[in-house]
Specification:
single chain; 223 residues; alpha+beta; Jelly Rolls; 6-stranded antiparallel sheet; 5 helices; 25% helix
Protein backbone atom coordinates (compact mmCIF):
# COMPACT_ATOMS: atom_id res chain seq x y z
CA UNK A 1 0.00 0.00 0.00
CA UNK A 2 1.01 3.64 -0.55
CA UNK A 3 0.63 6.26 2.17
CA UNK A 4 2.02 9.66 3.18
CA UNK A 5 1.13 11.37 -0.10
CA UNK A 6 0.68 15.13 -0.10
CA UNK A 7 -2.99 16.10 -0.44
CA UNK A 8 -4.01 18.77 -2.94
CA UNK A 9 -6.52 21.56 -2.29
CA UNK A 10 -9.37 19.10 -2.92
CA UNK A 11 -7.97 16.56 -0.48
CA UNK A 12 -6.82 14.18 -3.20
CA UNK A 13 -3.41 12.42 -2.96
CA UNK A 14 -0.77 13.77 -5.35
CA UNK A 15 1.01 11.04 -7.37
CA UNK A 16 4.64 10.33 -6.54
CA UNK A 17 4.62 12.00 -3.12
CA UNK A 18 4.20 9.02 -0.77
CA UNK A 19 5.99 5.83 0.19
CA UNK A 20 5.15 2.14 0.03
CA UNK A 21 4.32 0.14 3.14
CA UNK A 22 4.05 -3.61 3.63
CA UNK A 23 1.51 -3.91 6.47
CA UNK A 24 3.16 -7.17 7.56
CA UNK A 25 6.72 -5.79 7.49
CA UNK A 26 8.80 -3.86 10.01
CA UNK A 27 7.70 -0.49 8.64
CA UNK A 28 4.04 -1.47 8.76
CA UNK A 29 4.34 -2.70 12.35
CA UNK A 30 6.02 0.52 13.48
CA UNK A 31 3.42 2.67 11.74
CA UNK A 32 0.68 0.66 13.45
CA UNK A 33 2.20 1.75 16.78
CA UNK A 34 2.08 5.47 15.91
CA UNK A 35 0.80 7.99 18.43
CA UNK A 36 -0.29 10.64 15.92
CA UNK A 37 -0.54 11.46 12.22
CA UNK A 38 2.25 11.11 9.70
CA UNK A 39 3.97 14.41 8.88
CA UNK A 40 5.97 15.27 5.78
CA UNK A 41 7.57 17.92 3.61
CA UNK A 42 5.66 18.61 0.38
CA UNK A 43 8.70 18.90 -1.91
CA UNK A 44 11.27 16.64 -0.21
CA UNK A 45 11.13 12.85 0.32
CA UNK A 46 10.91 12.82 4.11
CA UNK A 47 8.16 11.69 6.49
CA UNK A 48 7.86 11.46 10.26
CA UNK A 49 5.81 8.97 12.26
CA UNK A 50 5.51 9.78 16.00
CA UNK A 51 6.06 6.76 18.24
CA UNK A 52 5.45 6.14 21.94
CA UNK A 53 8.28 6.79 24.38
CA UNK A 54 8.74 5.40 27.87
CA UNK A 55 10.71 8.50 28.88
CA UNK A 56 9.12 11.94 29.12
CA UNK A 57 12.28 13.72 27.97
CA UNK A 58 12.84 11.54 24.88
CA UNK A 59 10.97 12.04 21.61
CA UNK A 60 10.82 8.94 19.37
CA UNK A 61 10.02 9.21 15.68
CA UNK A 62 10.16 6.79 12.79
CA UNK A 63 11.82 8.77 10.01
CA UNK A 64 11.22 7.64 6.43
CA UNK A 65 13.69 9.01 3.88
CA UNK A 66 13.19 8.58 0.15
CA UNK A 67 15.99 8.01 -2.37
CA UNK A 68 18.07 11.13 -2.91
CA UNK A 69 17.04 12.82 0.33
CA UNK A 70 19.85 15.28 1.04
CA UNK A 71 19.08 15.86 4.69
CA UNK A 72 18.85 18.99 6.81
CA UNK A 73 21.45 21.77 6.65
CA UNK A 74 24.48 21.00 8.80
CA UNK A 75 23.85 21.96 12.42
CA UNK A 76 24.63 21.10 16.01
CA UNK A 77 22.58 20.95 19.19
CA UNK A 78 23.60 22.70 22.37
CA UNK A 79 21.39 20.58 24.64
CA UNK A 80 19.84 17.69 22.69
CA UNK A 81 21.50 14.33 22.06
CA UNK A 82 20.27 12.38 19.02
CA UNK A 83 20.30 8.65 18.40
CA UNK A 84 19.67 7.32 14.88
CA UNK A 85 18.97 3.58 14.56
CA UNK A 86 18.75 2.48 10.93
CA UNK A 87 16.00 -0.10 10.34
CA UNK A 88 16.32 -0.45 6.56
CA UNK A 89 18.20 1.04 3.63
CA UNK A 90 21.41 3.02 3.89
CA UNK A 91 22.05 6.49 5.32
CA UNK A 92 25.28 8.47 5.03
CA UNK A 93 25.99 10.57 8.11
CA UNK A 94 28.48 13.41 8.34
CA UNK A 95 29.55 14.15 11.92
CA UNK A 96 32.18 16.85 12.46
CA UNK A 97 33.16 16.46 8.81
CA UNK A 98 33.64 12.68 8.95
CA UNK A 99 31.39 10.55 6.75
CA UNK A 100 29.95 7.24 7.88
CA UNK A 101 27.67 4.84 6.04
CA UNK A 102 25.07 3.20 8.24
CA UNK A 103 22.85 0.30 7.23
CA UNK A 104 20.15 -1.80 8.86
CA UNK A 105 21.11 -2.59 12.46
CA UNK A 106 23.58 0.30 12.78
CA UNK A 107 23.14 3.09 15.32
CA UNK A 108 24.72 6.54 15.16
CA UNK A 109 24.76 8.70 18.29
CA UNK A 110 25.34 12.43 17.89
CA UNK A 111 26.40 14.13 21.11
CA UNK A 112 25.72 17.79 21.84
CA UNK A 113 28.03 20.23 20.11
CA UNK A 114 28.85 17.93 17.18
CA UNK A 115 28.17 19.26 13.69
CA UNK A 116 26.10 16.82 11.67
CA UNK A 117 23.84 16.16 8.74
CA UNK A 118 22.85 13.06 6.76
CA UNK A 119 21.37 11.90 3.48
CA UNK A 120 20.22 8.91 1.44
CA UNK A 121 22.40 8.64 -1.69
CA UNK A 122 21.07 5.33 -2.96
CA UNK A 123 17.93 4.37 -4.84
CA UNK A 124 16.13 2.73 -1.90
CA UNK A 125 13.98 4.10 0.89
CA UNK A 126 15.67 4.26 4.29
CA UNK A 127 13.84 4.01 7.60
CA UNK A 128 15.41 5.27 10.81
CA UNK A 129 14.24 5.23 14.41
CA UNK A 130 15.17 8.71 15.63
CA UNK A 131 15.39 9.52 19.33
CA UNK A 132 15.93 13.07 20.57
CA UNK A 133 16.98 13.23 24.21
CA UNK A 134 16.03 16.45 26.01
CA UNK A 135 14.38 17.90 22.87
CA UNK A 136 13.35 21.17 24.49
CA UNK A 137 12.12 23.62 21.88
CA UNK A 138 12.74 21.16 19.04
CA UNK A 139 9.51 19.49 20.12
CA UNK A 140 7.66 22.55 18.80
CA UNK A 141 9.95 23.91 16.09
CA UNK A 142 10.35 20.73 14.03
CA UNK A 143 6.58 20.42 13.34
CA UNK A 144 6.57 24.13 12.50
CA UNK A 145 9.31 23.75 9.88
CA UNK A 146 7.35 20.99 8.14
CA UNK A 147 4.01 22.72 8.63
CA UNK A 148 5.19 25.99 7.11
CA UNK A 149 6.27 24.12 3.98
CA UNK A 150 2.70 22.82 3.57
CA UNK A 151 0.90 26.01 4.59
CA UNK A 152 -0.02 28.17 1.59
CA UNK A 153 -0.91 31.03 3.94
CA UNK A 154 2.65 31.49 5.20
CA UNK A 155 6.11 31.89 3.66
CA UNK A 156 8.79 29.84 5.40
CA UNK A 157 11.50 31.83 3.64
CA UNK A 158 10.32 35.22 4.87
CA UNK A 159 13.23 36.86 6.77
CA UNK A 160 10.92 37.78 9.65
CA UNK A 161 9.67 34.20 9.90
CA UNK A 162 13.23 32.87 9.79
CA UNK A 163 14.27 35.33 12.49
CA UNK A 164 11.54 34.11 14.84
CA UNK A 165 12.49 30.47 14.27
CA UNK A 166 16.13 31.31 14.96
CA UNK A 167 15.13 33.04 18.19
CA UNK A 168 13.02 30.05 19.25
CA UNK A 169 15.96 27.71 18.61
CA UNK A 170 18.45 29.94 20.42
CA UNK A 171 20.16 27.91 23.12
CA UNK A 172 19.28 24.59 21.49
CA UNK A 173 20.22 24.36 17.80
CA UNK A 174 22.75 26.23 15.65
CA UNK A 175 22.93 25.96 11.85
CA UNK A 176 26.51 26.19 10.63
CA UNK A 177 25.91 27.55 7.12
CA UNK A 178 26.03 31.07 8.58
CA UNK A 179 28.08 32.37 11.49
CA UNK A 180 25.86 32.50 14.61
CA UNK A 181 27.82 35.56 15.74
CA UNK A 182 26.07 37.32 12.86
CA UNK A 183 22.70 35.57 12.75
CA UNK A 184 21.89 35.81 16.46
CA UNK A 185 22.19 39.62 16.67
CA UNK A 186 20.24 39.93 13.41
CA UNK A 187 17.44 37.73 14.75
CA UNK A 188 17.25 39.84 17.90
CA UNK A 189 17.14 43.00 15.79
CA UNK A 190 14.27 41.68 13.64
CA UNK A 191 12.31 40.14 16.51
CA UNK A 192 10.21 43.22 17.46
CA UNK A 193 9.20 43.77 13.84
CA UNK A 194 8.41 40.07 13.40
CA UNK A 195 6.29 39.95 16.54
CA UNK A 196 4.40 43.05 15.41
CA UNK A 197 3.69 41.25 12.13
CA UNK A 198 2.25 38.22 13.93
CA UNK A 199 5.17 35.89 13.25
CA UNK A 200 6.06 33.18 15.76
CA UNK A 201 8.93 30.75 16.15
CA UNK A 202 6.49 27.85 16.51
CA UNK A 203 2.78 27.58 15.78
CA UNK A 204 0.31 25.52 17.78
CA UNK A 205 -1.68 24.69 14.64
CA UNK A 206 1.14 22.48 13.36
CA UNK A 207 0.88 20.36 16.49
CA UNK A 208 -2.78 19.60 15.78
CA UNK A 209 -3.64 16.27 14.10
CA UNK A 210 -6.30 18.03 12.00
CA UNK A 211 -3.66 20.07 10.15
CA UNK A 212 -1.70 17.00 9.08
CA UNK A 213 -4.79 14.98 8.26
CA UNK A 214 -5.79 17.79 5.87
CA UNK A 215 -2.37 17.95 4.19
CA UNK A 216 -0.91 14.43 4.28
CA UNK A 217 -2.54 11.12 3.39
CA UNK A 218 -2.79 8.93 6.48
CA UNK A 219 -2.70 5.11 6.64
CA UNK A 220 -5.86 3.08 6.93
CA UNK A 221 -6.92 3.25 10.60
CA UNK A 222 -6.68 -0.53 10.81
CA UNK A 223 -2.94 -0.43 10.04
Amino acid sequence: MITGRTLDADGDPMPGTGFEVDPEGDLGELIADRTGPITSHPTRPVWGVPLPSSEADVDRTLSVFGPGYDGPPEHYHERSLERFSVRSGEVVFSVDGRRRRAGAGDTVVVETGRRHTFGVPGDAVATVLTEIHDPGRLRYVLPTLSGLAHDAERDAGNPLQRAMIARRLDGNTVFTETDPRLTRPLARLLEPLARAGGYEGAYARYLQPAFWEAHVEQPDPTL
